[in-house]
Amino acid sequence: MSDAQRVAVHRDNPDGHVRILFAHGAGAGLQSDFMQYFALGLALHDIDVVRFNFPYWQKFMDTGVRRPPNPMAQLEHCMQTVAAQFDDSKPLFVMGKSMGARVAFRIADQVQAQAAIGLGYPFHPLGKPDKLRVDDLANQCTHNLILQGERDGFGKPAEVATYSLPKNVEVQWLAHGDHSFEPTKRSGLERREVWQTAIDRVCTFIEKVNAKTRA
């Protein structure tokens, strides 16, 4: 990698039989509470989870100066470069939080992923429901999954129901969750409960995809 593309990479459970390449969102890097909780939770299910920082976030970590996200082409190149570090035969799933989900869906074919998984997909910019990002979901994977909080301002159930999504994209809703799957106090749920539900659904999805691949 060039200096502009050299980024931190962290693996949880390298011996896992399935690999997830996990991309962070625009406002937090690989060490955020969300990224760590999901990575460690998935690692307990025999999954090799690979987290990394996009270049702009790595620059922030190195200098303390916040920068806007790199252009999409650079984000894609970064994620593809991390994927290329591994030359084994483990089944690969690409997953991302918010912006990272867009990148994951866009590179799924190039890295020969079994499927793409989005956690809080930004169907549109906040407050701009007419600027859809549905085209980013198109790939050749047989199955893809999006987990979305019912209160997510980047795409609520009533909005998403009107979209023409690719037939290979399944959207599952997390009750009481927002864009980061945080529940309301009124719901009586703890954050860890909703996050664990999301982890369980990701694991179930991976098991189903792998079973169909082996069939």
Automatic annotation (TrEMBL):
Pfam families: Abhydrolase_11 (PF20408). Residues 18-207 form the KANL3/Tex30 alpha/beta hydrolase-like domain. Keywords: Hydrolase. GO terms for molecular function: hydrolase activity. The keyword Hydrolase applies. InterPro entries: AB_hydrolase_fold, KANL3/Tex30_Abhydrolase, NSL3/Tex30. This is Alpha/beta hydrolase. It comes from Pseudidiomarina aquimaris.
